Amino acid sequence: NWSWRPSPERGPITKKATICTLCEGGCGIRARLVNGNRAVLLEGNPEHPINRGGICPLAASGLQFLYAPYRITQPIKQTQKRGEASGFKPIPWDEAMSELLDKLVNLRTGGTPHAVACITGQGQGSMRDLWQQFFDAYGSPNFFQMPSHSDSLKLAAFLTLGKEEPLAFALEKASYILSFGSDLIGGWGSPGRMLALWGDWNAAQSENKTPSAKIIQIESRCSMSAAKADRWIPIIPGSEAALALGIAHVMVKENLYDTSYVATNVFGFEDWTDSQGKARQGFKSFLLASENSLEEASRRTGLEPAKIVELAKDFATQPNAVAVWGKSRDLPEKVHHELAFLALNVLKGNLKSQGMISLAPSVPLGPMPQVLADEVAQQGLARKSLDQVKAQDIPLSRKSLYGFLKNLSEAPSYPIEVLMIHEANPAYSLPGNQVFQKAIQKVGWVVSFSSYMDETSLQADIILPNHTAFERYDDVIGVPGLPQAYYAVAAPILPPQWNTRHSGDVLLQMSKNMGGSVADALPWKSYDAFLQDRVKGLAASGRGAVAQTSARQLQETPEGASPKANYKDGADLWKKLASGQCWYDAPQNPLQLVQSPSGKIELAFQSLQSKELEAGKDEQCLPNFSSIALSGNEKEYPLTLVSYQALFLSHGYLPNPPFMTKTLWDFILRNDDSFVELHPETARSLGLDEGNRAVLKTPAGECIVRVHLFPGARLDVIYMPQGLGHKAYDQYIQSKGANPNELLEVQMDPVSGLGTAWAARAQLRRA
Amino acid sequence: MSEEERKQSAVRFGMVIDLDKCSGCMACSVACQAENNISFRPDETNKLRSITWMEVFYLQNGKDYGEYQYTYLPRPCMHCDAPHHAPCTFVCPVNATTRNEENGIVEHIYPRCIGCRYCIVACPYHARDFNWWDPSWPKSMESMLNPEVSTRMRGVVEKCTFCHHRLLNARAKAYLEETDPDKATYLPACAEACPTKAISFGNLNDPESEVAALIKDPRAFRLLSKLHTEPKVYYLSKHDWVRKQADKGF
């Protein structure tokens, strides 16, 4: 009939279950296939215990990445100046690989393996571990990951408990949740888990069955979580930690904290004496000091004192109350602020057996072979990684991508000859992405492993395209925020559609050809074989079980009640995992894991030594609040720009797919202009009205936006969503709106050296 | 068909959307697009020209900062059950859109549609969209098209079908399994996708069904009920300010 209209080919329809790896949430999905070779729909797997059948908009659009027109279908090489889109020419795989191999071998021969660096966007999977193994064997310390909230969360756990592991929250049994700016239904933790839970909480409300959780949302903008919460507490942006300390102050002053818990399990609540016999301030007297008075908390947060007292009383008296925090899964926060939120939970006695907060258990996967670094590798690894070169004054300096890019862009103490970028798009998604643009100019040769022609791939000298998430084996180690141990394998739903290769296979092939200690450290034939090896190790541990149904068995497994292994051996476990099921194990008792210097939960951190501390500033080793000092002149930039994320707008490595762009409100995107949200009064004072075009300027940059009047915006604050303003991809994605990452100010956390970024001073004037 | 002639079948499919559970993630709308081969263009920001079966409305309580609240309201076709006709079926000059009295689903038959758009004017819920252009997809994404739903052509109207192709599958399965096809139930793509389980679907005439129980909830309401269109889509909200807007028009 209508020849100009596509008629999809018919055929038998089958379903294949797998795990979604578009984010770290660990959801189970099923693909609907036609003739076994064409995927037409992704749906939630009703038998998977994390998302229980639901699916987020990104996964529901997932096939648009598989079939994206902007995919890189074969290896390509830049033949002109770097950044020239038309300069890319196809090159056979063998040639591309040997070019990379030659460079890597030459750098080792020249004794400069540390001149190789990598940035990966894979935070949690085995691919990250494989890269680490490669860098350890090859001999470079310059292996970096894209920033994550868990970077700073782990440090808070390290200072408080002595274990550098991410914290987990037993929200399934919460009755009262104080959310300090965490958009619980907007992508916090695992979206699949949080949304299923949100449905439960509200179902319980209507059916009057089980007690439902009461949610108190604390943040400056009326996010969806705030609008739907039982209560929204609007505060000055960035003052969440000050409110946590204010609540802690009231709890201590009015004796509302768990006194027996604190007396038995906590160090540093009372004043203490250090190893040199010097008297030190404890958390209690710090909270009761005048700089942490109720009035001070009120001034910092913009909340009336009575409201803070009321929140403290509610939080203290509810049986299963928990405070959660973290604005975004992909942004670290100030370590001192992390500690303030954690301290509030410590006062409530939440870190205990069957408590609300624990440490995410590790997954006993098969170990990596020990790396026997040869002489060249040892020399390379002896060098400081480029981010650490100027990091002497940072007490808990951790791998910092910002630090790396900043040092590289200024005057690096040694050059980076080869930079490999794997499943990351820092040129777009890194706040303050200008630093990446500057840094990459200093790099000799840039390799991208992306499957997409994104902003970062455009800057590459050569692209060795990976398979997409649905064409390859991958795994998920742990779910962010989940107290139970979790492991799942994502099996491909279709064979590769193009001439792409798994980056893991490329890495293994490269190692094999290098020979020697590098080949010995990465002995697997293929990435699949490597994963199977790890799963064999998991099976050999005899721990945990495969979750059988969507029954809440995984999330209701109590601590200490490890499920009985229901798999025969490694091969059997692999078979089950590759068919879309997941492995789980019971949560842990945080009190049994404490390894801090005092052997207790610390509220005065003995592991934190710094110059300021030596100078007698005791508050440096206590949870404390410092408001961000944004750069720029207040007169020139009278407003504050705050960026936010939403589940309906993809903002990370993956661009917003057309399906999702279609659902965007016309007050988020209109033609090629994106909107900022302003309180109607703020807009009026600037002479702006709904839909007006305006120039938004911060010390970092400027762009054109339109104005949307939003009564959920705080006075004098501009809110801007993450996820628009791409310059790459295709006509469905590029040149739509503005990217706040070009406007935000990145600050180095003085404790960790990690970059924190969510705001900037700004001005807005009519365009 | 007069009111007396119309026989109520035992099956009336309906939907209940719990706005207290809805998190505004838009997964329903995305799943609908994927399931029903809804085409998209590089710029979809003119909402009067954009084809969206599961459209989402924005409701707010009219208050200022601190007390401001809003909710998203997903709006499929209401599959109006008014005795005589649905507003759209009443005006269609060519019987392109009719209500299937076996199950209550309001259907639209594209090859019959002459594109007069009377139904678009008649629908008080703005649930119908017109194909101003030939549908198109990026070539590589044509592989994603669902063979169970026909693609449309320029010049016809389209709208939510409650995924009735899924009903046909469920009935065919019932035949094969020798169970009663009239008892066959299914989930439309939006209800299946919803990550908070805010969307329930089933036979409103079956007292055992979840939807039959939910519409008795004191929070239940329908859109523009004053028009007596008898929508088979119900909403739940604990907020007065949401329920009050239901009769205001959109």
From TrEMBL, chain B:
It holds the Pfam family Fer4_11. It comes from the Bacteria. SUPFAM superfamilies: 4Fe-4S ferredoxins. GO terms for molecular function: 4 iron, 4 sulfur cluster binding; metal ion binding. CDD domains: PsrB (cd10551). Residues 13-43, 104-133, 175-204 form the 4Fe-4S ferredoxin-type domain. Keywords: 4Fe-4S, Iron, Iron-sulfur, Metal-binding. NCBIfam families: mnquin_red_QrcC. This is Menaquinone reductase, iron-sulfur cluster-binding subunit. It comes from Desulforhabdus amnigena.
